């Protein structure tokens, strides 16, 4: 019997490029002329050996599985018949044979192609065609799991850093919201580490601008969409100013469609956003709103029912959104002390309650009316508690963003 020495460079491992050599165990091999009795003796002496390679002039020609061999040899009269015969009688003539330098990724692919046999029997590792040792399927699964865990760790690290970038992108809007109105609260809770909701607030000499948007998807895809849509909105504000929400939505629609190539029949994606966009004019004491599938609620100071500024039921940027689509604007007189409230569908569509139904808009507006004399922070806390109670053990379905602003003054 022979045992091949293990003399291979570990340079690939140092570089982080794992290969078949990392799984190679220098177990003994048997020559083709060795008898089954000799194989039996070896299996009895080395109980840790699960398979034996059969070689001919140092080159592998087969693989003997311990369990299969012992099962065959334990049958009546098999010892008498096969003990003196060549060990090739019970070997697998087509084992998985790989070069020591084969990458783990390619080794995994080859193992999957061969099937369960390679996982159970293991595989033969060679160098320049000569037997180097055996690799076990369980070792391969363990190293693949370790590699996947490391990849997942790196991905999560990247996503967590992406969260820092996304929050930094939104920070200026939060700061602007605090300056615009002393009593204003915004809740932004991505379902995952990053999310597909974003907001934009900015103060100007004669008023202030606000927008709340819900992009396609959540997690990383949603976060990519927020970068695209937010940059489109920022560019539109720079070019057109904040006072015409209708024109801003048209510009964002055209920009998103252009960036994603969502025009014509050859579009590879169908992504976009829903958005509520509004301008508060301090000189005219008015509010102008335009929306795409996201409404804005206005609760006057002495009323118990909010006025719903309804959106157009066409989203921005989608493949079926016409590039020249117009989202009409609504303008109304705004009284000091009025509450402005808007939410993405992460609040409204959340499943929960005794019948596993959606939270709905009515519950949110009821809480708004009941809390209209409280600070907006308290209202948002109560609404968040209502949602948590409603959700119960149900999973969060989507990103959650909503805001409440009490318009304190309309003087410039």
Automatic annotation (TrEMBL):
| GO molecular-function term, one example from the UniProt record | phosphatase activity
Question: Which Gene3D superfamilies does the record match to this protein?
Answer: PPM-type phosphatase domain
The PPM-type phosphatase domain covers 182-407
Keywords carried by this UniProt record: Hydrolase
Tell me the CDD domains matching this sequence. Answer: CBS_pair_GGDEF_EAL (cd04598)
Domain of life, per UniProt, equals Bacteria
* TM stretches of this protein: none
Read off the Pfam families from this record. Answer: SpoIIE (PF07228)
**Which InterPro entries does the record associate with it?**
Bact_Sigma-Reg, PPM-type-like_dom_sf, PPM-type_phosphatase-like_dom
The answer to whether the entry has keyword Cell membrane is no
Q: Does the keyword Hydrolase apply?
A: yes
Please give the name of this protein: Serine phosphatase RsbU (Regulator of sigma subunit)
Query: From which lineage does this chain's organism come?
Result: Bacteria, Pseudomonadati, Pseudomonadota, Gammaproteobacteria, Pseudomonadales
């Amino acid at each position: 019997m022979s045992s091949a020495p293990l003399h291979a460079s570990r340079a690939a491992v140092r570089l982080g490029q794992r290969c078949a050599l990392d799984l190679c165990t220098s177990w003994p091999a048997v020559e083709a002329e060795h008898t089954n009795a000799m194989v039996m003796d070896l299996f009895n002496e080395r109980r840790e050996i699960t398979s034996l390679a059969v070689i001919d002039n140092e080159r592998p020609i087969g693989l003997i599985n311990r369990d299969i061999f012992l099962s065959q040899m334990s049958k009546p009269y098999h010892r008498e018949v096969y003990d003196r015969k060549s060990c090739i009688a019970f070997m697998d003539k087509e084992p998985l044979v790989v070069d020591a330098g084969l990458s783990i990724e390619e080794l995994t692919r080859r193992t999957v192609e061969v099937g369960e046999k390679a996982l159970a029997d293991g595989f033969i590792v060679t160098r320049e065609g000569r037997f180097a040792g055996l690799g076990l399927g369980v070792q391969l699964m363990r190293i693949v799991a370790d590699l996947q865990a490391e990849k997942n760790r790196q991905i999560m690290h990247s996503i967590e850093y992406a969260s820092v970038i996304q929050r930094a992108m939104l920070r200026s809007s939060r700061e602007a919201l605090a300056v615009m109105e002393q009593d204003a609260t915004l809740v932004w809770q991505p379902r995952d580490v990053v999310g597909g909701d974003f907001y934009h607030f900015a103060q100007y000499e004669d008023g202030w601008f606000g927008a709340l948007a819900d992009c396609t998807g959540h997690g990383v895809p949603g976060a990519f969409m927020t970068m695209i849509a937010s940059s489109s909105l920022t560019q539109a504000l720079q070019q057109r100013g904040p006072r015409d929400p209708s024109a801003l939505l048209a510009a964002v629609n055209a920009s998103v469609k252009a960036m994603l190539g969502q025009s014509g029949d050859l579009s590879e994606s169908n992504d976009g956003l829903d958005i509520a966009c509004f301008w508060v004019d301090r000189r005219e004491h008015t509010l102008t709103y335009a929306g795409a599938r996201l409404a804005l609620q206005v609760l006057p100071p002495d009323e118990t029912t909010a006025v719903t500024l309804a959106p157009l039921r066409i989203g921005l940027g989608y493949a079926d959104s016409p590039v020249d689509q117009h989202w009409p604007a609504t303008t109304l007189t705004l009284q000091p002390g009025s509450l402005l409230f808007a939410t993405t569908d992460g609040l409204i569509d959340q499943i929960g309650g005794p019948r596993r139904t959606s939270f709905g808009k009515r519950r949110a507006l009821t809480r708004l009316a009941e809390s209209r004399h409280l600070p907006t922070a308290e209202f948002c806390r109560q609404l968040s508690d209502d949602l948590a109670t409603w959700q119960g053990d149900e999973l969060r379905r989507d990103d959650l963003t909503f805001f409440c602003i009490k318009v304190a003054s309309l003087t410039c």
